[in-house]
């Protein structure tokens, strides 16, 4: 008996009475094809048992990504900061914007800033501007100073959020892996002999990150605690120096995991010797924070992955708010420093002990300058 002939796009096109291009667009699915026609072609494809060739699909995706784009191929970089071009003054935003710009250029796109809070800018006006510019996709950047994107319509746009602070709309997002970051920090301080670490974070931050930091802290308390005494934590409403120092005096942590360099300065101003009296770890350290131990959250990797994900959505015609949004988390990297005791174990071993920089989980490699999808 002769083998059955494979079902191709041409087969479906002949049965549906349309062109191969129409079938191809309908199966992606692309909004250039009306919904009734897409549904008809998709149903016919299922009926005849069509299965796409993954090798061909990868090749076509490569061609769509690698080919040069016209000057109108622009990706929008939306932000709700209090000023235009916030990357000029905010280090985190600078890393997001610079890395996103470089990745867009590599893929043939141009990245343009759109200031949502610009005087005179309304949601409808911004939507008209995006449409008139022919923009197919936008990045929603972190809401570091409040604000919202909820009033905007994204029905005709591919959209990806950066970070956890963009709660509405609920879209696919790329963010730092804060559970991994906190775990990596605790692995390192435990290896240096600390036995009573304390956690200091804002309540808003803890809630925004889905309690990842607090959850990792309590998980490692269970793993490492050598007594029934709970590790101290202060989940504060605001960053208050007096409240912080009172907590340190009362609970006496031997090392504090905190959100910034400000807490390190508070300890020094109060007369604590760091690391002789108490250690300090910055959970969101920047490379520029020389001397302070902490986690570099790899903002460059987050921005690069966000652009890659957005371009994938554009290439596949995925627009609007997804029914089931997902998150891609990028792992950070431990950096030792003078604010904690010296390690008994090589830092390269600690970085890979139980939380390696790159694992086969679909994450991007966290080492600066090396990004690759697994």
Description:
With 374 residues, this protein is of the alpha/beta class. It has 3 domains: 9-52, 434 Repressor (Amino-terminal Domain); 74-176 and 301-330, Response regulator (Rossmann fold, 3-Layer(aba) Sandwich); 178-299 and 332-352, Response regulator (Rossmann fold), CATH 3.40.50.2300. Helices cover 38% and strands 15% of the residues. The protein is built from 13 helices and 12 strands. It has helices spanning 9-16, 20-27, 35-47, 54-66, 91-106, 123-132, 178-191, 203-208, 212-224, 241-251, 262-269, 299-315, 347-352, and strands spanning 74-79, 110-115, 137-140, 158-162, 173-176, 197-202, 233-236, 255-258, 279-285, 293-296, 327-330, 333-335. The protein has a 6-stranded parallel sheet with strand order 2-1-3-4-5-11, with helices on one face. The protein has a 6-stranded mixed sheet with strand order 7-6-8-9-10-12, with helices on both faces. Helix 1 crosses helix 3 (35-47), helix 2 crosses helix 3 (35-47) and helix 7 runs parallel beside helix 9 (212-224). The chain starts with 8 loop residues before the first helix and ends in a 22-residue tail after the last helix.
Short recap of the structure:
With 374 residues, the protein is an alpha/beta fold.
